[in-house]
Amino acid sequence: MNLRGVLRKLTLTDLLLLSALLAGRALAEETIKGQVLGAGAPIVKSTVTLWEASTGVPKQLAQTKTDSDGRFEVRSSGAHNDASVYIIATGGEPRSGGGDNPAIALLTVLGGNPPSKLTINELTTIASVWTDNQFIDGSAIKGNALGLRIASGNVPNFVDLQTGGYGGAIQDSLNGPQTTTLANFATLADVLAGCIARVRTDACSSLFSASTGPAGSAPSDTLHAAESIARYNWYKPERLFALLDAFYPVAPVNHLRTPPFEPYLSFAPSAWTLPLVFDGGGSRASGKMMFDADGDLWAVSNFTVGFQGQDTFWQGHVAEFAPNGRPISPITTGFYGGGMEGGTFGAAIDASGNLWAEQLRRTVDLGFRQARQTADAA
What we know:
Elements: H1 3-9, H2 12-23, E1 31-38, E2 41-44, E3 47-53, E4 59-65, E5 71-75, E6 84-90, E7 93-94, E8 105-111, E9 117-120, H3 122-132, E10 136-137, E11 140-141, H4 145-158, H5 181-196, H6 203-210, H7 222-231, H8 237-247, E12 286-291, E13 297-301, E14 318-321, E15 346-349, E16 355-359, E17 362-365, H9 368-377
Parallel strand pairs: 1-9
Antiparallel strand pairs: 1-2, 1-5, 2-7, 3-4, 3-6, 6-8, 10-11, 12-13, 13-14, 15-16, 16-17
């Protein structure tokens, strides 16, 4: 029988399914397994909901409850592979104590390529809220595709999605020992954990009072508390820090606290911000920074890595960083070409995505976009 004969015998349902299989990634179904933790212990009977974020109202994809070990399994049926998905866990009974707690609300933003195994806890909540804050409205996340992709791509800088532990960037040599970001991060997780585990009978009400913004509207669960802290990180930060002592007082024997997350702060911060430092890609004394249409950062350097910088000898090149801070340009030299040396007098990106750099009143088109695409393809 020829192909036309075969097609005549296909039913409408067959044709629709064939069309979906040929065109589509929309019918892709993945199983996501995970565990909900609070203060380091499983949360039982927590309601876990998988959502798909877009520019409109989020779409609920699946819902289930955690078992006696805080574990769950959901299927992402109906999700588009290029969509940004996230999971919210609400309520439940922490094994650490306190009984059923309706104030529990934890978040993990997974992006467009979720792992098959994940953890939802205080660290994933803070990482997700601080990176996606401009797109969060209560329990809903919505925004343009590029913005959502950039935001979700930065969550792993703070937290390991699979284990719920610290991510790579926040504990690397540039951030762990040289900034207070890791301690800020852990301290925030500790005060959320105090409410989840109800370390005191007034733990949740204390958290909600300390995280109330200048408008005076108090949060009602741990997720909304985290959102309020991130949004008004500058507002009376000492209130939240005081909860560290209230929830986990210093032991008189060894002068240590026993919170679920360390390191913790010794002094109240000026604001609850979580800045991260990135380097590489040949960046050295960079300036004239520009963002392209993909969210990549381009920075023109005064000097090249390894050279002794001098005012009479500017030989810097161009560095490019992905939106998550990953350097794209070569580690030592950066991108160079077109006769460029020390091009920090001006920079611009044209409508085609090409970077132009001005050096000593001479503008050169460096063609880095094409060079990078060629390197990526290889």
